[in-house]
């Protein structure tokens, strides 16, 4: 789901940049790391706008109550196996133009225009998102000089012109259901004999 969401956004941004900057069939935006594990810039990131996931933030503000379902025979109760995991994505949009700083700034400006114009992605305006993702909203994040220095130090690269967005949110929920036996009778805790009647295999020692 993470790849699906970010790949869709990268493709939408690429289509916009290609049209705006008249790049023909050349790729303008990619989903990739800014630098590889060895510290060098990947070839397919050079002279392009690069979208990189730099953090997954577990969203805990939204609380969900368990939802219970009952089958037609009413013999068992069904419920989701687990509550959903919700995540916000911190995505860095960077222009990787080592030898053409001016062109890089043009690409960054157009990328900002794109996200300012389209800061919500949903099924209606972005059909390629797929049915598993209902909506993605983009929030521009302001970083202090200290935070920006720390970020690029963690990435392992020298600073490049960039902007940071928080994407809200992706919800992970398995469709698998589990059966939970229906409770037929509840015995008073003080009545030991009734507990034995409910479960004859369970004997109570005095």
Give an overview of the whole structure:
By secondary structure, this protein is of the alpha+beta class. It has one domain (2-61, 84-174). Helices cover 27% and strands 29% of the residues. It has helices at residues 2-21, 101-117, 145-155, 192-198, and strands at residues 29-31, 48-58, 69-70, 76-80, 85-96, 120-122, 135-141, 162-172, 177-181. Strands 1-2-5-8-7-6 form a six-stranded mixed sheet. The chain is globular, with a radius of gyration of 26 Å. Residues 177-184, 194-198 and 200-204 have low confidence and may be disordered.
Task: Write a compact overview of the structure shown.
The chain has 206 residues and is of the alpha+beta class. 27% of the residues lie in helices and 29% in strands. The chain is built from 4 helices and 9 strands, in the order αβββββαββαββα.
Strand portion: 25-35%
**Average residue pLDDT:** 81
Number of domains: 1
How many strand segments? 9
- Overall, the morphology is globular
Helical region count? 4
Helix content: 25-40%
**Major sheet characteristics:** 6 strands, mixed
């Amino acid at each position: 789901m993470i790849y699906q969401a970010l790949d869709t956004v990268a493709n939408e941004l690429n289509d916009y940049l290609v049209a705006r900057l008249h790049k023909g069939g050349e790729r303008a935006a990619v989903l990739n790391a800014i630098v590889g594990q060895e510290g060098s810039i990947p070839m397919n990131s050079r002279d392009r706008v690069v979208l990189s996931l730099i953090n997954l933030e577990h969203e805990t503000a939204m609380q969900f109550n368990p939802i219970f379902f009952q089958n037609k025979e009413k013999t068992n109760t069904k419920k989701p196996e687990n509550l959903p995991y919700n995540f916000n994505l911190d995505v860095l949009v960077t222009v990787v133009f080592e030898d053409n700083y001016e062109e890089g700034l043009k690409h960054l400006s157009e990328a900002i225009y794109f996200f300012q114009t389209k800061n919500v992605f949903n099924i209606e305006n972005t059909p390629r998102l797929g049915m598993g993702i209902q909506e993605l909203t983009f929030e521009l994040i302001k970083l202090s000089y200290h935070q920006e220095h720390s970020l690029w130090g963690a990435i392992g690269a020298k600073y490049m012109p960039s902007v940071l967005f928080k994407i809200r949110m992706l919800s992970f929920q398995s469709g698998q259901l589990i059966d939970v036996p229906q409770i037929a009778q509840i015995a008073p805790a003080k009545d030991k004999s009734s507990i034995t009647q409910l479960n004859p295999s369970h004997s109570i020692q005095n």
